């Protein structure tokens, strides 16, 4: 009787795209009642990138995908699933942004769909790719987190407009029979009772487009910042401690801790709770702001491009966002070093 060999999901490559235009704190000082000093002290953000008016989520995603594909060494016709995580899709209802991305990069007749998990999107994508691969249904899954957050930000609201930026990050997740290359563990969760902490009230079935929606600005993101902040620190720390303990790995064995880039104070609090050094904790929030589902892959791309992320090294991902959702993953980088 033949026995099927176990299959593991491996993280093969990373790519990202950052739009050209930069929005600095000095620019924001001219738009709302804020100061560079306040933004830096409370968030660690110096600047964020903003997509051009005619540059859409799928355009940024397609550029990140092309890089991830090229760096993976996998041919486009070997890709059998494309998934995009975004809360700023090209179209809110249909078609999915993943379908548009697939077309833009020349992948046709392949399953494609979007997922919505806000800032937790990229680790949620990893969980979906892992499940498809380990069940034997797919072999090469292209995942991409992409956001044009500037399309849902109210640039007269100082509590949100200082935080968010645009960008995209993609990765190739492939089947392997080598357990040492596979994702070690992943935990993803949600609690909808906090849904009102981070919400874009319209458009949707609750608030279809209407004059009232526009008059009240319901198309813009709303956030209970301070409450979200406190819960983020608590949840991120707990989640990452649990995944490390479960796998009997101590924090000092992790060369690359990549938390969601929402606020430097959150990142610092979680890093300190784990007693991690500055070298271990990846921080890109200062130059990109919060790019939601794109934040982790953009940070990963930065450390890969600078030669800091080497083949076989352990990565610990940790994220938290609207939903509320959260997720963490422990995995080796199974691609080539730069
Ligand atoms: O990615 C998903 C997860 N998202 C997050 O994790 C974001 C979490 N939240 C945060 O990053 C922080 O809560 C913020 C950066 C949004 C706000 O920082 P905070 O330390 O929590 O400030 P706060 O909301 O408690 O506001 C303190 C004061 C308020 O004034 P009063 O009431 O004390 O007079 C705000 O009105 O700061 C004021 N304020 C500002 N002042 C200058 C709020 N935004 C600004 C601003 N410039 N941009």
What does this structure look like?
By secondary structure, the chain is an alpha/beta fold. It has 2 domains: 8-180, 3-Layer(aba) Sandwich (Peroxisomal Thiolase, Chain A, domain 1), CATH 3.40.47.10; 185-332, 3-Layer(aba) Sandwich (Peroxisomal Thiolase, Chain A, domain 1). Helices cover 31% and strands 23% of the residues. It has helices spanning 25-29, 36-43, 57-72, 97-104, 121-134, 211-216, 225-246, 264-273, 285-288, 295-305; strands spanning 8-17, 21-24, 47-50, 81-85, 111-115, 140-148, 166-176, 185-190, 198-199, 222-223, 256-259, 314-321, 325-332. The strands form 4 sheets. The chain has a 5-stranded mixed sheet with strand order 1-7-6-4-5, with helices on both faces. A 4-stranded mixed sheet has the order 8-13-12-11, sandwiched between helices. Strands 2-3 form a two-stranded antiparallel sheet. Helix 3 crosses helix 4 and helix 7 runs parallel beside helix 8. The longest helix is centred in the last third of the chain and has 22 residues, at 225-246. The N and C termini lie far apart (43 Å). It binds oxa(dethia)-CoA (UT7). Oxa(dethia)-CoA binds at residues 34, 38, 42-43, 119, 158-159, 162, 225-226, 228-229, 232, 262-263, 266, 290, 320-321.
